[in-house]
Design a protein that fits this description.
about 210 residues; alpha/beta; Rossmann fold; 2 domains; five-stranded parallel β-sheet; four-stranded antiparallel β-sheet
Length: about 210
Amino acid sequence: MQSLKIKNLECNRNGRSIFTGISFDVTPGRILLLSGKNGSGKTSLLRILAGLMPPKAGSIVWGDKKFTDKRDRELFSPLYIGHSNPVKLGLTVRENLIFWAKIFGHGLNVDAALEQFGIRNHSELPASYLSEGQKRRLTLARLALDQPVSTLPSLWLLDEPAWGLDPEAVKTLSNLAIDHVKNQGMVIISTHGNNLDELLALNSDRYSLTENNC
């Protein structure tokens, strides 16, 4: 597995500096917890790493390859889950997960994935019937889908993934993240500090955007 190296990354939005001088490494087998006050740039950083927006300056190096634009960053295809839950309300819960599985090349073990997040009993309901917490569970169930080793995203980018989850679902999320890094994957999680941080403590490092923003 290849490591990820971030060097002097800089982000501007609408002419305003969000952060400068952000540098860190993420190695296979570790989780990085991103902390920082609201507005410090946690979401912007994850979106840059996911290839959804360009940095103003700095470098992103994956293994021995330096990514210089959005197209390059898409080549290492991280699995990104943002703040919002991209649930298709007109599809059933099960159909939503099948849709994502086919789009991203995951296995079709959808029932087992829904079971892990405690929503298998709702699998034939329209997703519009779900509460916000249940929609979050459905979104995160992507992490529990089988993936061929050849297409396995070794990097997960999760933006406040525990938001709206009860303790049982947070435990499921932490177990999936730990299993992923035990297989030499990497996970970057933005967090404000919560029970998820405690569950991941032995497998994680921490980086504060507030403290390291130049």
